[in-house]
Write a structure and sequence with these properties.
Elements (H helix, E strand, L loop, with lengths): L18 E3 L4 E3 L20 H8 L6 H4 L4 H14 L2 E3 L5 E8 L2 E12 L7 E2 L6 H14 L1 E2 L3 E5 L4 H10 L6 E5 L2 E8 L2 H10 L5 E5 L1 H11 L8 E8 L6 E4 L1 E4 L4 H8 L4 E4 L12 E5 L2 E6 L3 H7 L11 H13 L10 E3 L2 H7 L7 E4 L5 H9 L9 E4 L9 E2 L4
Parallel strand pairs: 6-11, 8-12
Antiparallel strand pairs: 1-5, 2-3, 4-5, 4-10, 5-12, 7-21, 8-11, 9-10, 13-20, 14-18, 14-19, 15-17, 16-17, 16-19
Length: about 400
């Protein structure tokens, strides 16, 4: 192993409020899981129910834990895998350098650790609202499993140069794990040298981070943590310096299988400007929504101020400028009376995917949303304004099962 890359004479700032702590990750044993690529799960957004069922057929796939019908059954599987050596716990606490790469292009690089969850506002910034029902589900699953299988994705700006150089140096070592999911190569390096860990702890300089993905898991940790003591005072987290590795930000589109598109266009025309798109559906421009279904499409712009104000009553005024605020409150709830029930709305991340889902006659409608700028997301989050649910999708998201936080192990 190369010698530790540490220069303790460099001037480093004092530790900051956000602390990413070393921990002993649970990982697949390379000898028992010969092809790690066959054990990990891609992000939830990339999976449909059929794909989940296919992954769960493997006796040791992490999807059997992530998408178990009952957390008690998943906990029994997890215990068996640990006893049989399918999974093992690292001997020493470590921080883990994690990288996603497509060909020669590095898409993302960051540090996985145990984040001490701050209780003071302004340090860890959520940017989207959460569903109380989903938070309850996540909390029940995490509590029953006593584990976190996928990290929160956190964005921050500006790692200290000494720490950044150390991270780069670590990636020149032999990796601890490599897996390929689709076109993406996922690589993990273990950093457990005490001197290097001390440099990283001092050099992160993370005074504020944005929750890019994992809002419901974060809220579940806070719910389970109660008085901020015990296991759930921390959370598995991936911290990415977006000054060096910017995250991709895309919109999330709405598919309404029971809504007839021509009827939706007529109702939308009562609260906004609606114009047909003879060439068919296309990605929306800023300030525009695109309604499509059965091969037809309409541009929706310029919402009526009075109707928008009525629809946004009891919600932040800033939502009037957000695509999801206009789509969900003015159109879905106010103009179209879409019920807030399971199955009434499906959320898809690609324009082509959403358009294809409603391309056949009688297939319902899709509402395509434009992207929200990252600066807007940060500014609203810093001001304490949460975006509507399913407003944005940051990526690339980490794979699940590469480095897991399992609680209560001796």
């Amino acid at each position: 192993m190369p010698a530790p890359f540490v220069s303790l004479t460099e001037s480093l700032p004092e530790p900051t409020p956000l602390r990413l702590r070393p921990f002993r990750a649970v990982r697949y044993d390379a000898h028992r899981a010969a092809d790690l690529s066959e054990m990990l799960a891609p992000p939830y957004d990339d999976l449909d129910p059929a794909r989940v069922r296919a992954l769960r057929r493997h006796p040791h796939h992490v999807a059997r834990l992530l998408y178990a019908d009952a957390p008690q059954g998943a906990a029994r599987d997890l215990g068996r895998w640990l006893r049989r050596g399918v999974l093992r716990r690292d001997e020493r606490p470590a921080l883990y350098v994690y990288q996603q790469q497509r060909g020669a292009r590095i898409l993302q690089r960051g540090l996985i650790g145990d984040l001490s969850l701050p209780r003071r506002a302004g340090q860890l910034l959520p940017h989207e609202d959460v569903s109380a029902h989903v938070v309850h589900q996540r909390a029940a699953h995490m509590s029953g499993l006593r584990a976190q299988l996928e990290p929160l994705l956190l964005a921050h700006r500006g790692m200290e140069p000494a720490a950044a150089r150390l991270v780069d140096h670590v990636t020149r070592r032999t990796p601890g794990a490599v897996a390929r999911i689709g076109p993406i190569t996922h690589t993990l390096w273990v950093c457990d040298d005490p001197a290097e860990l001390a440099l990283l702890a001092r050099g992160l300089s993370v005074r504020q981070a944005l929750i890019a993905d994992g809002h419901h898991r974060h809220a579940a940790c806070l719910q389970l943590g109660g008085d901020a003591a015990g296991w759930w005072a921390g959370s598995l987290a991936l911290l990415v310096d977006i000054a060096t590795y910017p995250l991709r930000l895309s919109a999330i589109h709405r598919v309404l299988p029971a809504l007839e598109p021509e009827k939706a266009a007529r109702a939308a025309a009562e609260v906004a400007r609606v114009l047909p798109l003879p060439a068919g559906p296309r990605p929306p421009a800023p300030g525009e929504l695109v309604l499509t279904g059965g091969g037809e499409a309409w541009s929706i712009t310029d919402p009526d101020p009075g109707a928008l104000s009525e629809a946004l009553a009891d919600h932040p005024s800033q939502w009037a400028q957000l695509p999801a605020g206009v789509s969900d409150l003015l159109l879905l709830r106010h103009a179209w009376s879409v019920p807030d029930l399971p199955g009434a709305v499906t959320y898809l991340h690609g324009v082509r995917q959403a358009t294809a889902a409603v391309s056949a006659p009688g297939g319902g409608s899709a509402l395509l949303l434009p992207e929200v700028g990252q600066d807007t997301v940060w500014e609203l989050a810093a001001a304490g304004v949460l975006l509507p649910r399913k407003s944005t999708s940051f990526g690339p998201k980490p794979a699940a099962g590469l480095a897991m936080r399992v609680l209560g192990l001796s």
